[in-house]
Amino acid sequence: MIRFLYNLFWPIGLWFFLPGYLMKMARRGGYREKFGQRFGIYDHEVQERLAVSRGKGSTWLHAVSVGEVNIALKLAKALRSLDPDLRAVLTTTTTTGFALANKNAPPWIEVMYTPLDYWPIMRRAFSVICPAKIVLVEAEIWPNLAAGAHARRIPLALVNARLSPRSEKRFRRFRFFVAPTFRLLDLICAQEPDDVDRWVALGVERSRIRHTGSIKYDPADLDRSGGAQEIGHVAAVGFERPVLFGGSTHPGEEEILARLFLNLRIKFPSLRLFIAPRHVERLREIRAQLEALPLQVQLASESLNHGKAEPDCVLVDTTGELQRWYGIATVVFIGKSLTAHGGQNPVEPIIARKPVVFGPHMENFATLVKSLVSKNGAIQVHDADSLELAIEKLLGDSESRDRLVENARAVVTEHRGATARAAALINKLRSEQE
User: In 3-state terms, what secondary structure has residue 247?
Assistant: First the structure.
């Protein structure tokens, strides 16, 4: 009954949200490529490539955007190590996620856009992809996708599952509508022990839930040296000077960083500012804001192409390379934590051996942040003034920076092996279903 109502009102919802959806895609660019795949329309070449694996079936991994795509690729590699003949389909929702997946996926992974969750579209997608199992990343549980898998007896797993207290409260309010879909999951790989109880409270059998740790935090590269040698071509813009780096920033945070940078430069004259906004389509807006201040601003691509040798501020205008850019940082500010809520992933700079500072709004990483702060592995500030004081202290004290990094890496190590654990459970699930 619930799914009947969902499909009944789905076209109305599509027309209501479609204008904003199309405007967002237009801003991000590249939306025309493979656009038909969103509606279950696949060209002959794609169908031929997928037909090769129809006998055994593909593993269908679904990821929303850049962060989830990185998790999916990491997991796919672990699954391939358990099954050398594995072939996979990776679907993603955003153009940035699609571009990153196309760039980094090996030949045995077919990258496609996620089909819209309407029953005729999803039915067409199932008939073309012919999945042997489906793996959803983090929070993407769609009713028709889940029901389609269940009807076809295709194992359905949710990996790197996170469920904050706020999300659990919201789901509980609508439990009548969401619980039937959640109960169709054959396996949930939860990031934290507390997440297990939250999923049980929403109607999922405890026997189907495993605490595996976070794939996103799994420090597969924790032992690498980090630093500027990791960034290759980025070296062309210079990393010898101290660098304040704003990673995955959101509206308002760029200007805050620029103003405190101008204050800090009085004490640290050689300091440079690097900013990597979460959404690159905002670059023009950000550049206009910062150039209104007494700052020389360049895009990273301009600096690499022999622009002004020493701009005050460099705006990173590439997607999917943030981990490499962190190598030049002296101190990293984690975006979406000061003027927006939720926060961004603090583990990437920690892996690169960089001290991290973030604002009060890190709700998406609450458990990790609590552990980092309590164990002196990161600094959490309340406002712009305290952010400036924290950064000033770190810039002037290399021992404090080193101590923060080592403590942070000890916290992250707790998630070591999460990818392998999730892959083993998924592989076993498949074996049980065959």
Answer: strand
